Amino acid sequence: MDTVLVEEEPPQLGLPELPATQAVIELSIVVPTFCEAENVAVLVNKVESALGKRRWEIIFVDDDSSDHTAERAKAIAAIDQRVRCIRRVGRRGLAGACIEGILSSSAPFVAVMDADLQHDETLLPRMLSRLESGEVDLVAATRYAGEGAGADGLATARRNQLSRIANVSVQRLLAVRLSDPMSGFFMLRRQVVEEHASTLSADGFKILLDIVATAGPRLRVGEEPYRFRPRHAGSSKFDSRTAIEFAGLVLSKLSFGVCSPRFLVYALVGATGLGVQMVALLGFLAIDGDRFAPAQLFATGVAVTNNYFLNNLLTWRDRRLKGWQMLRGFAGFCVISTAGAVANIGVAEWLFAQEPKWWLAGLAGAVMGGLWNYSMSSRLVWQSR
Ligand SMILES: Nc1nc2c(ncn2[C@@H]2O[C@H](COP(=O)(O)OP(=O)(O)O)[C@@H](O)[C@H]2O)c(=O)[nH]1
Ligand SMILES: [Mg+2]
What we know:
Strand order of the largest sheet: 3-2-1-4-6-5-7
Radius of gyration: 24 Å
CATH class of the largest domain: Alpha Beta
Number of helices: 12
Bound molecules: guanosine-5'-diphosphate, magnesium ion
Order of helices and strands: EHEHEHEHEHEHHEHHHHH
CATH architecture of the largest domain: Alpha-Beta Complex
Number of strands: 7
Shape: elongated
Number of domains: 2
Oligomer: single chain
Mean pLDDT: 86
Low-confidence stretches: 1-8
């Protein structure tokens, strides 16, 4: 297929590069895994057949899968030096796993592909040749354009529909000129990720979209069509949180990175908290209509509880607290939220004294309280950045 974006000058990414021909390993294939024990050995065999005598390696990045995927991968690595496995403990996330795998590589070119054999490994040599020719910086495999392309391997008709809707919105909103920006199968010059690593989002499922949107129009992108196959063994990890994260990534890119995808999920949880608070307030007042202060206290308590458990379930899913840690986290969250409420009231009162506009003071207080709660909970309760 033709190159989608062609720039006159190759991009100057600023880091010295070893000529690709001198590299010990020509291509690193990064494979994020979560419960893919039955697939890893089959994938290694298929890649071996596809790449023949090319100098390649596979890096499995496993998030401590309960089905012992990492053990299986390491058993292969023990007898095949082309295979490595990074086992991440206490963390979850497809995009973060891919970034970590890519950054652990020293090959000039890196591919990202799924472990479940949905991606056609026979495309790898052609993708590599296109990168080696210097014609493009990134080749994305596409299910939606070109001869032989097809997405029939998507698990359900609903997934297929969702994928197409997401594609169109991304192409319109972010001006990403890829026919399949949600593809999890692509190959690129490693330096592209080295250059942008600090601005890529570790949250979410859609690493290709993030790389292309972050690198901007200087990145020369090509596409290769393929037929997306049904999953070999195991089950998909796509769920509603993945969809929320995706919306978060798009909004984050639209806000030029000011709002992180995590913050947007947090804001969404905060909005549900507001609804819960109103319902709880109404309920209390319906029973005891004369006592507003205790009603408000009760409703706030319900909202804080709602927010804590939803944040633990969604916003910080990758760092989810369980058992005693969850209860300790709840206590911490209550303290932080109380301090946040004090900050909220303090800022609102101060602003109202300067400029007596109730909506401005109220909004500023709420923003202040929200930002405080987010940054403190992030650091102290879930201990992420
Ligand atoms: N390391 C890591 N890999 C993941 C995670 N979620 C999904 N994966 C892997 O990412 C790839 C794509 O996931 P999959 O469930 O097949 O998504 P789908 O093809 O969109 O249904 C597979 O190899 C999964 O094992 C995660 O949280 N961490
Ligand atoms: Mg899959």
